[in-house]
């Protein structure tokens, strides 16, 4: 996968993660807001109900202190009709109730009926103290953390509703009442009720959610900063990767010219200068070997650099394997500094569909490694080809030092070389097998290795049919 495409995928995943986080946080906070708002609204209604109760009991205390027992006791009795209605209502609810919420609803309904009945009896003896109710309501709201300006009115219902009492605990500008919320509480159903208007109580909900909102915001900011820093780091790495690629391309192209010149000069001194003695020829041969080695490394690095470009394209063709192997085998026999015995077991008419240049390079790398890592044994290499209905395979088998099982998993990694303390004379950058693995993947195939330390290795190219 190219660096540019990898960067785009990472950037897209980061953006999707941030969007998902923002959506999930928003959804969760919205649910929390709705729940908190309902709780606040319930608290306001509870404050009105409790203020009404307390005002009722304070009037009862006042009547008791004034020795109104005779008037209260006879008056404050449930009539037969009222008792019957309450009892029938309780029985009806009990028969249908199945859960705790249903029983709580029954209790609440009965409690409300009792409160209304108390108003009917006590209000005839002593009028409602609206000012006291207002004070009790204000204290009740403050105890529940609801400290917002409010307006309270007592409305008597009729053909035209009339206002019996008004109290305004307002502060700030009049525009703030545009988002007000109204609550009502019946004093006597159908006759009189409290009308409570609160100035923008939403801020109470947000105040209760302040800790969660701030922590959620800080968490999102931290994650956003981390993602931005990650993108910045990846972008920097991408730029460094591009600079490295450009440097590699320029360096390899620039090295080819002096290597060619040095190789030509060395060849002239070695083959056409009659004054060169044996000792000089010995050193010139060493120079030629090193130039060949350096030239091969430059070509390998250049090939890897080219195949990683976005413009890289394979040029597959049907290749007769035996015809490709013959000159390759001769080349290695001539340039090797030790006797090499290469046996081929490839059917004469066996073909594969591949890029000729890259197939040649892959086989060259495998044969070259087999020679380099032959150790002190005689260098014997077997090239074998098989054809089945599913795949065509080409394998290179040697009798060299082998590879341990732990290292077999990493031999195809870029720049990885098997650590061997006694093989410092084997030079390379660990690119050969990486190149083979990479090119086989581009051919929709793969390369495998089987090896035992001290008994040799077999590298197999698998081409799908």
Automatic annotation (TrEMBL):
**Domain Histidine kinase stretches:** 250-465
Q: Which SUPFAM superfamilies match?
A: ATPase domain of HSP90 chaperone/DNA topoisomerase II/histidine kinase (SSF55874), Homodimeric domain of signal transducing histidine kinase (SSF47384)
- Tell me any Pfam family this protein matches: HATPase_c
Q: EC number(s)?
A: 2.7.13.3
Gene3D superfamilies in UniProt:
1.10.287.130, Histidine kinase-like ATPase, C-terminal domain
| PANTHER family in UniProt | HISTIDINE KINASE, TWO-COMPONENT HISTIDINE KINASE
Please identify the protein, giving its name as recorded.
histidine kinase
Gene source species: Parabacteroides johnsonii
